[in-house]
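Hello forum,

I keep getting stuck at the same step: I have a sequence, I want structure tokens, and every attempt I make locally crashes halfway through. Rather than fight my setup again tonight, could one of you with a working pipeline run this one for me? It's a single chain of 245 residues.
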Amino acid sequence: MCFFAGIRRPFLDPDSHSQWTAQKGAAHYHAGESEIADAGRLLGRMHAADPPEANALATYHGPVVRDAEWIEPHLVSAGDAIEAAGGDRHVFREATLARLATAEPVMGLPLAGCSFDFKASNLVFSPKPTLVDPDHAARMPRLYDLAVALLLFHCDLSTAPGRLWTRAEWATFLRGYAGHIAFTDAELAAWPTVLQLAWLDQGVWLLGNWPEGWADVKDRAYLLDVAAFNPAVFPLTPPDQTVSG
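Reply #2:
Ran it on my machine without issues. Output:
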């Protein structure tokens, strides 16, 4: 069951999934300010809607927490790819292990029906962003879905820039999102930890398991940016954010 089955466009076109492969290549995203703001608003509206159908999805009450046994093989393959691309595998390994040493479960965050794969290549941007690939949908902390979107938004799309968002682009996306979601005190406190957990799960896996990306000049630049990820560039609270209890 699609958790957006009860929601009409622009969240999800339920008839579009069969055409997803063709549409993906024509997403027309170029990291323009209005595109980023519209995408933020879309994710915020999705999380705020949280329809009853979401209760039929797999539910995760906290962000994914990876351990050393899971991390190690991905860390090795990612290190090989980073070194081949001219990066420093030792710096990457040290950063990964330092984050892993402080990784801990985070519970009690607000749950919502989430895409768990919210990125530009899964949206059609004309005339307004529409989600066309909800296959990874789950009920989970909305904050984790936001963190995953930050990391993956420019993944696997030829028209996207070969990097993560800039600080200004992140602020634009976040303002759009926060127009529909007021962060709780618990979310604001948990953001640094949740962002690190998302990087250990989604970021390290991507770095170690996407040879096609490493073979592409643009995607290689994006992957190197993911490898050098600096959480300090991506604070949670936009300047005009109102906090709820």
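The radius of gyration is 17 Å. If your local run keeps crashing, start a new thread with the error log.
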